[in-house]
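One such shown below:

_____
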Amino acid sequence: MTDDKVKRRLTTVLCADAQGYSRLMEADEAGTLGTLRRYRAAIAGLVERHDGRIVNTWGDAVIAEFGSVVEAVQCAVEIQKEISNQDSDPPHADQMRFRIGINLGDVMVDGSDIYGDGVNIAARLQELAEPGGVVVSGSVYDQVHNKLTLGFDCLGQRQMKNVAPVISYRVTMSGRAPGQRSFLVDESLTPQAGPVAASEAGALGIRDRHEPSAWMRLVSDWLANLPRPVAVALTVSGFLFLINVFTGMHRIWFHWPVAVLLFIGILRTLRRQR
């Protein structure tokens, strides 16, 4: 019975996939295959340099795992830089671009292969990335945001196929001091348009350009872990409270719009979960 027990471990999974691979193969099979082989060799070398291993390759995709979350993110950034450096000059529309997703999660182990939601989430995060970009899960962000000179744009909680929604972050390559973050709202997070979507974008679409204080970092991390509609409602409620305070507490009015905002936020959260 012990031989049949499923082995599990916590690991960091990196999933890389070539964008538009089928279109590139249709246009130039031999050239595309040669480019893919060259890029795969570069990816394998960088994965090994960062103490990772290639788990699987199929078609144009690469799955790798790392014992260190920091090494995995550093490797992903170096992969994108290396591929960009290998591109021809001047650039053209048929260049091969990779999208990378990284997740820290529990996986099932079968020989040299790994399976489970830990792998599936990394694959779904890869689909959220732009060509040449990297998207990480909230579990990865929590481990690396104060250890690497990279920026992170919060994409919020995305609904993904066959896996539970997770908070994700886009890695920005421009560089930023460790512990400093930027949050950028993606308009495609919510299918609704109109005043509510506009207010959410206004509340969260502010980039953090200076080193925040400790309590501001604590509040930001706390809000980032809340469902997005509730976080937006609480943020707007805070502004309404301050307006009421500075315009005079002889007449208290902020609790009525705050109650409405929280009610809407809870309803939208329940609807998304359902």
Q: What stands out?
A: Confidence is low (pLDDT under 50) at residues 177-212. Residues 8 and 108 are 5 Å apart (CA to CA).
